[in-house]
UniProtKB/TrEMBL annotation:
Recorded family membership: Belongs to the sulfatase family.
Modified residues (3-oxoalanine (Ser)): S85
Matching PANTHER family: ARYLSULFATASE FAMILY MEMBER, ENDO-4-O-SULFATASE
Modified how: The conversion to 3-oxoalanine (also known as C-formylglycine, FGly), of a serine or cysteine residue in prokaryotes and of a cysteine residue in eukaryotes, is critical for catalytic activity.
Domain of life: Bacteria
Protein name: Sulfatase-like hydrolase/transferase
Gene3D superfamilies the UniProt entry points to: Alkaline Phosphatase, subunit A
Alphabetic keyword roster: Hydrolase, Signal
GO molecular function, one term: arylsulfatase activity
Domain Sulfatase N-terminal: 37-374
Signal peptide span: 1-25
Keyword Signal set for record: yes
Length: 525
């Protein structure tokens, strides 16, 4: 794996760690008690957390995920470590924050620093591994026993194996310029990428049902291109409630948001006129994904694998979905793009329903390690959730807050520096393509901490934002610097500083003499 050679075996062996107890997951929720549990990550791309009936959204977009949330556990304070796919996914499989991996943008994921990752630990502990769907990490073919990649524009690899219907559909996706289709997509749901992925995943699971395995079922949707076939295209027509804010909130959010909207209009002709259609299609895509998750889990039940499998449903980051008059992501760290769905169910998960613990995608890898009975590698900064999910005692204070970060560093790059969006690659020459992750939107460094109803955002220049999320979920009333809120502001500044110090990269550890102490279950605090 990338950069494993940075840390010598001697250095690692010299670091004496307090061992994390092996997980009790294999004996929870039925299943084969002599078999170690499978671990399946069902991950979507760019799915907003609050568009669910379980959180009060008026449309029933995720009936299956909601049903499993009731049978297992779901977190309404789950966050991505970074609202961009590459950095978030690298953090997911390494359990390390972007500032530790060094992969803080989509363009340097191959620079990731770590000792071991999800599939590496699985292999060393006798597990088979499968990646079905979107990768967008440093991993390459050969890092998984089953490598079945799809991306936003179709299936990767040899096209001569595709049926004529699937080939035609992938060609249709290639003609969308990563933007949208404003009519129903051609074909049926069987041509859609999620359907094809579930078929591939179930076939592999059936062939490997006698061995424990780790699988990432990684859907490229509901990321743009926003497209979906019937009946999903029309399912929510005329029923989508308006977003809480519109483009009039952009000046309040700041120059990055204003500029993002400006570039979006340049890159996507007719953007304002099409915004409601985009939102309706986006929600149809979420429902289609939910139906395919149901199909996958039902297939696992038919194979007799459900009771032997721990499942988690997540997304790498959210989508503005019309908030501030924007789609996709790109500017800032509002909850629309940093808060993610997280639902756990299956082996080792006690039915507890909604949880208000603050958790992160970095917590999934150490949880998987303990589920497999494996040691959590050095350098992992996430915390195992096995005790919490199993209904056992755990320190509530450990999960009282969570941190997220964004930006690749340096100073903010502004319109005064350049407006050549085409040369940089942010806007297409024909006005059909727009990449929201660009020099202007991603420059600088910003961190946020969420604790209870409060959220603090701070950047490298000392600019602060403070929001009461219960009263101001769209984060448009900045309370930072107001005397009335000075006590909570100081508390959150201390909490963010605690997080920043606690997540400094611990590797490489001292090569000689010193004993490196770790908390049970990799708790940080």
């Amino acid at each position: 794996m990338t950069n494993n050679t940075l840390y010598t075996a001697a250095g690692v062996l010299a670091a004496v760690a307090v061992s994390s107890p092996a997980s009790k997951a294999a004996t929870q929720q039925g299943g084969n008690r002599d078999r170690r549990p499978n671990f399946v990550i069902i991950i979507t791309d760019q799915q907003r957390a609050d568009l669910t009936a379980r959180e009060g959204f008026p449309l029933d977009l995720t009936p299956f995920a909601d049903s499993m949330a009731a049978r297992g556990a779901w977190f309404d304070h789950a966050y991505t470590p970074c609202p961009a796919s590459g950095p978030a996914r690298v953090s997911l499989i390494t359990g390390r924050y972007p500032k530790a991996t060094g992969a803080d943008s989509n363009h340097n994921i191959e620079d990731a620093r770590y000792i071991d990752d999800l599939f590496g630990v699985a292999h060393k502990n006798g597990y088979k591994t499968a990646l079905v769907g979107k990768n967008h990490t440093y991993m390459k073919k050969g890092d998984a026993d089953f490598w079945c990649p799809y991306n936003h524009l179709g299936q990767e690899g040899a096209k001569d194996t595709l049926s004529s219907e699937n080939l035609a559909f992938d060609r249709f996706l290639g003609g969308t310029d990563f933007y949208a289709s404003f009519g129903p997509s051609p074909g049926t749901v069987r041509q859609q990428i999620p359907y094809r992925m579930v078929s591939d995943a179930l076939k592999w699971a059936e062939e490997n049902r006698d061995d424990p395995f780790v699988m990432m079922l990684s859907f490229p949707e509901p990321h743009n291109p926003y497209q979906v076939c019937e009946p999903y295209f029309s399912m929510f027509e005329g029923k989508v409630p308006p977003a809480r804010t519109d483009s009039t909130a952009l000046p309040v959010k700041g120059e990055k948001f204003v500029q993002l909207n400006r570039m979006m209009k340049l890159g996507h002709k007719g953007y304002d006129k099409n915004l409601e259609r985009l939102r309706t299609t986006y929600m149809g895509m979420i429902r289609m994904l939910d139906d395919q998750m149901r199909r996958f889990v039902s297939g696992m039940q038919d194979l007799g694998l459900y009771d032997d499998t721990m499942f988690v449903i997540i997304s790498d980051h959210g989508d503005y979905a019309g908030e501030y008059g924007l789609m996709k992501k790109g500017a800032g760290v509002p909850d629309a793009i940093t808060r993610v769905p997280m639902v756990w169910f299956g082996n080792g998960v006690e039915a507890s329903g909604r949880r208000d613990d603050h958790v992160c995608l970095t917590d999934i890898f150490p949880t998987a390690c303990e589920a497999m009975g494996a040691e959590i590698p050095l350098g992992v900064q996430g915390r195992s959730l096995t005790e919490m999910l199993g209904g056992r005692e755990y320190p509530k204070e450990e999960f009282r807050s969570v941190m997220s970060e964004a930006g690749f560093g340096g100073q903010y790059f502004t319109r005064e520096d350049s407006e050549d969006y085409i040369k940089e690659g942010a806007v297409g020459k024909k006005g059909l393509f727009f990449d929201e992750l660009n020099t202007w939107s991603q420059s600088g460094t910003i961190s946020m901490v969420r604790m209870g109803e409060w959220k603090l955002v701070f950047d490298m220049k000392g600019n602060g934002e403070l929001y009461n999320m219960d009263k101001d979920p769209s984060e448009t009333d900045n309370l930072f610097g107001k005397r009335r809120y000075s006590r909570i502001q100081d508390t959150l500044l201390q909490e963010l500083l605690k997080w920043e110090i606690a997540t400094e990269d611990p590797i490489p550890v001292p090569r000689r003499r010193y004993w490196f102490k770790r908390n049970p279950h990799n708790y940080i605090f």
